[in-house]
Amino acid sequence: MTAVTREPRQIAELRREDRGLPWIGNLFNYQRDPLRLYRRHWEHYGPVAPSYNLGRTTVLLLGPDACGEALQNRDKAFANKPAWSQLVGPFFRRGLMLIDFDDHRDHRRIMQEAFTRDRLDGYTRRLHPAIERGMASWAAGRQFPAHWRLKQLTLDIAADLFMGGARDTSEAEMARVNKAFIACVQAAAGVVRADVPLTRWGRAYRGRQVLERFLRGYLPAKRATATDDIFSVLCHIETDDGARFSDDDVINHMIFLMMAAHDTSTITTSTILQYLGQHPAWQERCRAEALALGPAPDRAELESLVSIDLVMREALRLRAPVPVLVRYTVKDTVVQGVRIPADTMCALGIQFTHFMEEYWTNPMVFDPERFGPERREDRSHRFAWEPFGGGVHKCIGLHFAGLEIKAIMHRLLRGYHWSVDPGYVPPLDHHALPFPKDGQPIVLIRNS
Ligand code: HEM
């Protein structure tokens, strides 16, 4: 008997009604309601769906099987750099997420040294005073703009943990650096994608120069003395066989790391605040855990917070800070039996998977117990829950992120209680990473 090998299918033809606006394509439909758009494509085309955006055809990979194949990347057909640099621009060049294959493997091996258990212990010790300082100016109130305050807080934490407080820097200089950094992050949503004054990209080009100058100025001091901030750590880490980062590597990685760590942690904490504000029983349960620990728990204690961990996982499911990952094919490949030609931009619908009824019960409902030991819905498929991605580019900062988020929640729960209207639905901005445009106002009360 001869085995029947099935020829891969071609990508389906895009229906006229799915093309969206001339040239713009589905960009505005995505920004209005990404889930609706992806559901429509999934229902008609299945896991490998054609789409059209900004003048070109792209391919949507939908569901955990298709996303899993691209993330595992067995035939090395999917590359990060040509995909992500089209979105985030040249401002994060040579960051770990924007390099590929052997080059990526070599850099990741060195960077792994910055995220060992011992390093995480050190970062955790720094986290508490940084959070305390950052929250000191918080004024409780009935319209507390939680998302904006958390964004500032995670920036303040980054200034300390990443740059060691940049001790000799004046407040004005630090504000300039923060502004430059934000300009780089906001470039992703730019329509004019060139160095044109007064546009997002124009500001980001200037921003990158400011950041490079600033970091380069500190480099000699960071090289000279080993401290436990990430800047210094990147200057000193070394693999067993002696591989180290060059000065340029340190600067490129620093700029990318600050970007990778900032909005993602802000979005997760503000999502947690929203749901705990709408579910007071869960808030009390988490508070009891936070109160059972001392004022500055160490890494192991933060990692032992069971309820806060369940809530964090559920928040990451309901609002994945990076809802879509992108890849670019550097050669022909096949996903789910469909041939994808070389030079194709692919979008992996991470958030879409998180809402699939095939893998989650009542996926739109806040239900942290779904991650508990009896249910473990995240194990319904290896790629059912993928807020940190998967494969060789899986988030290297995921444990660090968990510690930062839990340390913020620990302090907040001990110092405050809060509520959010049960009917509140955040008006999300989907231009880049999803955030509540209204700043997510909550009623915040200081504990007596
Ligand atoms: C809740 C917080 C976070 C989320 C949801 C998140 C999500 C992700 C995702 C989805 C990727 C994979 C990108 C891809 O495959 O193309 C990624 C990569 C990465 N993340 Fe995170 N991240 C978070 C926090 C952090 C933090 C705190 C750091 C650093 C301290 C960090 C550093 C990185 C780096 C360096 C990469 C690139 C890894 C590589 O390409 O090898 N992330 N992150």
Automatic annotation (TrEMBL):
InterPro entries recorded: Cyt_P450 (IPR001128), Cyt_P450_CS (IPR017972), Cyt_P450_E_grp-IV (IPR002403), Cyt_P450_sf (IPR036396)
Alphabetized Gene3D superfamilies for the sequence: Cytochrome P450 (1.10.630.10)
The keyword Protein transport appears for this protein: no
GO annotation terms (biological process): sterol metabolic process
Residues bound to heme: C395
Keywords, alphabetical: Heme, Iron, Metal-binding, Monooxygenase, Oxidoreductase
UniProt protein name: Cytochrome P450
Organism name: Actinoplanes aureus
